[in-house]
Amino acid sequence: MPKLVLKFENSILKEVPVGAKEVSIGRSPENGIVIDNPAVSHFHARVFNEEGRIMLEDFGSLNGTFVNGQRVKMVSLKAGDSVAIGKHTIVISDSRDLDGFANGSGNGKPVPPAPKLNETVMLDTKARRDFLQKVAAVGESAQVAPARIKVGTLIVRKGRTDQREYMLNDKLTVIGKSAMATVKLKAWFAPKAAAQINRRDDQSYYIGAADKTPSVNGQPITQPTKLSSGDVITVAGIELEFVYRD
Amino acid sequence: MGAEADMELEFGAHSDVGCVRENNEDSYRVAPEMNLFVLSDGMGGLDCGEVASRMAVDTIVEHCRKGRTSDSLPLTGPRIDGVSEMTNRLASAVRVANRAVNSAAMQNSTGRPMGATVCVVQFADERMSVAHVGDSRVYRLRGDEFEQLTHDHSFVAEQMRQGRMTAQEADSSKLHNVLIRALGVDPEVEVDASEELVLEGDTVLLCSDGLTRELTDAQIAALLHETEDPQEAANRLIDLAKQAGGGDNITVIVLRPAARPVGALGRVSRLGKWIKDSAERHKR
Fold first, then answer.
1. Which of A59, A172, B162, B164 ranks highest by number of CB atoms within 10 Å?
2. Pick from B113, B164, B199: which is nearest to A210 by CB?
3. ∠ CA(B173), CA(A203), CA(A32), 5° rounding?
4. Residues of B in contact with A199 (CB under 8 A)
């Protein structure tokens, strides 16, 4: 399967296979490839598979998408093509080997020794540092920068609660009648804990079922579901809008 | 702390050497009086792994116990925002354990590296604090949803998170037992701490990777569904993992908030007390 390799200068930040599903590229965290750079539009471009051809479409972005130096609107891509968006580059690779780090991918990085069967081992300090630096590079360049963490907010649109708005500063937010609930339900028969919202380490928010199964934009959830700005949550007779605030 | 007394937890725990290894490097401790449960998987070979994991669980229980009796016990390491005092205490305990294992490793005459994973949970009513380092896991079963609440600090898990590996590739990778974070390796360790809601009817499972290497999530969830008694569930999970090969040590802790008649009675007795107190106040 061909893949998109996101690079910044000489470091590889991310590799995303292009399968049946299209890969969107942009500054917004909803994208498959997130490039957090002011020169990149929120929804900048997409790459998709059309009858076996890999297509790239620019969504009319302000600063453009360039393939091998040419500004493009919609083109077919081939292995080896280089797509420039802002200061980042996306290279189309046809390698079947996704295990880029472990096998070096030509970057000459040491490969951790294959451990004996079932024996848990630790990467030694140097190997781990190299690895963590790579992880950090992704964190800094291609995701939401830590300095600009956005806080999720719930706005009450319908129903009886103790506040109109709730900033989701905590890792765990409970909606219900319980003493530990942040979003306190006032209705007489409201459940103790109707639903929960977890802020995960990547600073995104996930809503999950508790005593009730909440709906997001009218769809009952079947598993913890990532919230995006503008999502409407209905649960236990209340309606909440989720938004990100800077 | 008064709130913790309301929480009634049933638990079962068990550890087994498995079918291949000669010694059990896993350790666990339950401290039901604190609603505290901790599990650790040691590594290092010879008896180093056992020493490391036992040191980890003992240090964590000890630090939490001290924290309860003394409000002034400082937190070790940075305070984490957006979580309770209890969660911060757990993270602090894990950091103290890291230092203990690290200094033991430094003094270790065999020169072998010594380390451990750890996962620990503590409950206050419906709030569960979770802290972990390494690839020992915490799961929650709620209805049909079996959710892993921790993410492994392993090489393959990190690759997957970055989209560099698919789940299939991770499963078949030779590197699946390479950790990128563990207790004892460095003098400081980054601890993942989070909070979760746990309701009556939920089951919480702590386990070492000896369980999850042998059994699928679906197998584990099915067994937890059909086994009411937590201790029996713990025993059966280990039996099943051994039948599947038992390639590593296996340790599990199964936790269930009790169907608390105690709570209901408690409420009635509190109501009685309130009426009595009001009557007293009225007299005065």
1. B164
2. B199
3. 60
4. 82
Minimal C-alpha gap between A146 and chain B (Å) = 14
B186·A100 Cβ contact <8 A:
no
**Residue that is written with structure tokens 């896993």 in the block:** B26
The CA–CA distances, whole Å, from B56 to A32, A196, B114, B141 equal 39, 31, 12, 26
* pLDDT for residue A134: 58
Phi, psi of A189 (to 5 degrees): -100, 20
How much is the average pLDDT of B138-158? 92
Of B70, B88, B86, B92, nearest in space to B124 by CA:
B86
CB B80 within 8 A of CB B166: no
> CA separation (Å) from A163 to A235, B207, B230?
16, 40, 40
Closest by Cβ to B115, choosing from A17, A122, A208: A122
Q: A123 to chain B: which residues are within 8 Å by CB?
A: 155, 178-180
- The partner residue sitting opposite B83, judged by closest CB among A119, A170, A211, is A170
Q: Do B164 and A99 touch (CB under 8 A)?
A: yes
Per-residue pLDDT, averaged over B246-252, amounts to: 95
B126 in Cβ contact with A193 (< 8 Å) = yes
Q: Cα–Cα distance between A153 and A171 in angstroms, integer?
A: 13
* Type and span of the H or E element at B241: helix B230-243
ipTM score of the complex?
Answer: 0.80
The three-state DSSP-derived secondary structure of A8-34 is ECCEEEEEEECCCCCEEEECCCCCCEE
Mutation site, A15, A24, A122, A171, interface B, largest B CB count within 10 A: A122
Residues of B in contact with A122 (CB under 8 A): 43, 113, 115, 178-180, 182, 185
Helix axes B48-69, B85-107, angle to 10 degrees: 140
Tell me: the pLDDT tens digits for B8-26? 899 999 999 999 998 999 9
DSSP A51: T
Tell whether A243 is within 8 A of chain B (Cβ). Answer: no
Which long-range contacts (C-beta less than 8 Å, at least 24 apart) are formed by B102-110?
B102/B183, B102/B184, B102/B185, B102/B186, B102/B187, B104/B51, B104/B52, B104/B55, B104/B184, B105/B44, B105/B48, B105/B52, B105/B184, B105/B185, B108/B48, B110/B46, B110/B48
Structure confidence at residue B169 as a pLDDT band (50, 70, 90): confident
pLDDT-derived band of residue A137, with 50, 70 and 90 as boundaries?
A: low
- Shortest CA distance from A136: residue in chain B: B162
pLDDT in tens, B68-107: 988 789 999 999 989 999 999 999 999 999 999 999 988 8
Identify which of A101, A122, A172 has the shortest CB distance to residue B195: A172
**Residue A145: its pLDDT value, please?**
41
What's the rounded Cα separation, in Å, for the pair B217 and A196? 22
Could you tell me which of A215, A149, A212, A226 has the C-alpha nearest to residue A181?
A: A212
Q: Say if the Cβ atoms of B82 and A179 lie within 8 Å.
A: no
User: How does pLDDT run across A212-223, given as a tens digit for each residue?
Assistant: 999 999 999 999
